[in-house]
Amino acid sequence: MKALVISRLGGPEVLEVRQTAEPAAASGQELVTAKVGGINFADIMTAQGGYAGAPKPPLVAGREFCGTRISDGQRVMGYVQWGAFAERVAASTALLWAVPTGWSAEEAAAFPVNYFTAYFAYWKAGLLKPATGSAAPRVLIHAVAGGVGTAAVQIGKLLGVEMYGTSSSEEKLARVKEFGLQHGINYKQRDYEEAIREITGGEGVDAVFEMLGGEHTTKSVRCVRDFGRLIVYGATTGQPAQLDGRVLYAKGGSVHRLWLTYLSAKRELMNRAWEQLSTWIAQGYLRPVVGHVLPLEQAADAYRLLLERKNVGKVVLTLA
Asked: For the chain, how big is the Rg over CA atoms in Å?
């Protein structure tokens, strides 16, 4: 079968379209004929050698996909640790979900990682119940125009959250405001810590969804109000989190790590998340934002869109 292979560790240049052996379904797995794959920053980290638990190259890239289940012909979207960017994928039955009515394959391939991550970020922040009263909880969402960011905005709107988002351009922020973002911060023009302090009158936010790493971890902690929470789910700068515990002590704040690889093995948690997400989907409130669709042969260009922060919403690859 045709597949996108990480030939060695490195940047987008290490990606190669090759003919590889078809996967065999292990116990608890099913085979899917994949049509579209969704790219995540975790895929870039896997190619670079920075994703925990990933096998050494060569290996087939990709974590999420949409296709047709071979056993019954049903259109499904799915999540795996690697191996998604291929014409055939072996995936856990528990991590395959029916494609919602009316969704394209591109939209379905953009769903699993983004929406489960965003849902669990609100869960970790203790904000899953819709806000009541006059004071809405505040959340700062980094990379708000990306895949997880746009999903978090759609969910936050449903929960009555006051959302602050960072991005690299006014155009990207304007697009996300169409989905419900109230406060956009162009980090190339304005320091987001100062912006949060000014907009909130020095109070800060209740939670920060942080996936930058490096100095931004402590910088984001300084954005939370007393007893606020930092939800860390990535390190797109390539730098490990730098955390000054004294900042946490001063605010009574807390840091929570979110790793979908780990949570995806917790069936009860995933089922509960899917029950709520699928309800919102059926009500017409959630729909993935797909910004770029490229063929598999242009995978390197697709990866660069994420690396260069040029995407709005999801970047997906057509596999067949």
From this structure: 19
CB 230 within 8 A of CB 210: yes
| Segment 156-184, tens digit of pLDDT | 999 999 999 999 999 999 999 999 999 99
Q: Parallel, antiparallel, or unpaired: how do β-strands 59-60 and 75-79 relate?
A: unpaired
Structure tokens at 141: 């969402």
SS3 content of the chain, % helix, strand, coil (to 5): 35, 25, 40
Integer CA distances (angstroms), 113 to 42, 116, 138, 216, in order = 10, 6, 23, 23
Locate 172 and state its tokens. 């990207």
CA 303, distance to chain mean position in Å, is 15
Residue (of 230, 162, 174) closest to 201 by Cα position: 162
**Amino acid identity for residue 52 in this structure:** A
Find where tokens 């996936």 sit: 211
206 phi and psi angles, rounded to 5 deg: -80, -30
- Angle subtended at Cα 155 by Cα 149 and Cα 160, rounded to the nearest 5 degrees: 120
72 pLDDT band (50/70/90 cuts)? very high
Q: What angle do CA 134, 138, 141 make, to 5 degrees?
A: 150
Q: How far apart are CA 90 and CA 73, in angstroms?
A: 15
Mention every residue, 6+ apart, whose C-beta is less than 8 A from residue 152.
118, 121, 122, 139, 141, 144, 163, 209
Identity (one letter) of the amino acid at 137?
P
pTM to 2 decimals? 0.95
